[in-house]
Design brief:
13 helices, alpha/beta, four-stranded mixed beta sheet, about 375 residues, five-stranded mixed beta sheet, 13 strands, Peroxisomal Thiolase, Chain A, domain 1, 2 domains, about 40% helix
């Protein structure tokens, strides 16, 4: 039996705090006209106090599970793509797994820059198709505002925060993730990077004074790379699916720069209305940009069963990735309010379960400590 990994749920979250181009005019030497003409961005969202990559991932994941009609306990796998995890370890995915109450799910993070969501989607789809799992949650989430140098005009105007998620489920009907493409060129690693904070340059007075804990980017080189790579991988992933560009219903590219997207559309000669963008409202949210746009397009009725949706991204690493998806899930009707209430109650119960497990672990440790003390005597 052939197994297909279908997208059955989707959801996104954007923080309520908005930073407009007008706001940036008061922070750095720039203007609304300069930002819009060079990037296409008008505003971006910033995580508020207490909001983190974990909390935003949770919001997007809950919405995706709601659309999928699945309980967290039915998840077999959780993959979160991020370059801004809450901690180096434990993994963001493990914290999300606990908060959701997805007690049966394996969980891990991956880091592939702005291509990360496609990497996660590809890994999950292949594992499901191979029979390893039945369901998977894939999240792209970033809190880039915490690693953005707000005094650097070149990068301060670009980035925003947010999270997007999809739920994959195995099905026998042909469709779902038809093909994926992943690639990397580490020789371009210096073009977009966070210099310090890892094992090579751990935090120190020097790294902080030299502002090495903020994003550094060589914009022109990244732009040239992206303009060439985006149409290449779009064309190739469609060919891998045994289809042609004429079959594409909607292209959802990484939302980095409107000029990059426009150049790719011209190269591919796609008809008007084939590309979905929301860059003007969110800026570049790295690995969150494609799942946020995919979720919004589905919610807006831009995607219908039978449509061929292509997602394509590029980013730090340098990395790139694309996925061709045959959409198979209609937008579900909202559940009755009583059912929504019951579903929301799962999460306080998950928090209580987590607290109980921590208490039991602590009590167990006391018993072990008493035993060891007795052995010493």
């Amino acid at each position: 039996m052939t197994r297909y990994a279908h997208v059955v749920g989707w959801g996104s979250y954007a923080p309520p705090q908005v930073l407009t181009n007008a706001d940036l005019e008061r922070m750095v030497d720039t203007s609304d006209e300069w930002i819009r003409t060079r990037t296409g961005i008008c505003e971006r969202r910033l995580a508020g106090e207490g909001e983190t990559t974990v909390s935003m991932s949770l919001q997007a994941a809950r919405r995706a599970l709601e659309v999928a009609g699945l309980r967290p306990a039915q998840l077999d796998l959780i993959i979160i793509s991020t370059v801004t995890p809450d901690h180096a370890f434990p993994a963001t995915a493990c914290l999300v797994q606990d908060a959701l109450g997805a007690s049966h799910a394996a969980a891990f993070d991956l880091s592939a820059g702005c291509s990360g969501f496609i990497y996660g989607l590809s890994i999950a789809a292949h594992l499901l198709s191979a029979g390893a799992y039945q369901t998977a949650l894939v999240v792209g989430a970033e809190t880039l505002s915490r690693i953005t140098d707000w005094s650097d005009r070149a990068t301060a105007v670009l980035f925003g925060d947010g999270a997007g998620a999809v739920v994959l489920e195995v099905g026998e009907n042909e469709g779902g993730v038809l093909s994926t493409l992943l690639g990397a060129d580490g020789s371009g690693g210096d073009l977009l990077r966070l210099p310090a904070g890892g094992s090579k340059a751990p935090p120190s007075h020097r790294t902080v004074a030299e502002r090495q804990h903020f994003i550094q980017m060589k914009g022109r080189e990244v732009f040239r790379f992206a303009v060439k790579k985006l149409p290449e991988i779009t064309r190739e992933v469609v060919e891998r699916a045994g289809l042609s560009l004429g079959d594409v219903s909607l292209l959802i590219p990484h939302q980095a720069n409107q000029r990059i997207i426009d150049a790719a559309v011209r190269t591919l000669d796609l008809p008007p209305g084939t590309v979905y963008t929301n860059l003007e409202r969110y800026g570049n949210t790295s690995s969150a940009s494609i799942p946020i746009a995919l979720s919004e397009a589905a919610e807006a009725g831009r995607i219908h069963p039978g449509d061929l949706v292509v997602c394509a991204g590029f980013g730090a690493g340098l990395t790139w990735g694309a996925a061709a998806i045959r959409w198979s899930r209609p937008h579900p009707a909202p559940p009755p309010r009583w059912l929504q209430f019951l579903r929301r109650m799962r999460y306080p119960l998950a928090a209580a379960r987590s607290a109980l497990r921590r208490l039991l672990r602590w009590l167990t440790s006391l018993g072990v400590r008493d035993y060891l003390d007795g052995e010493k005597r």
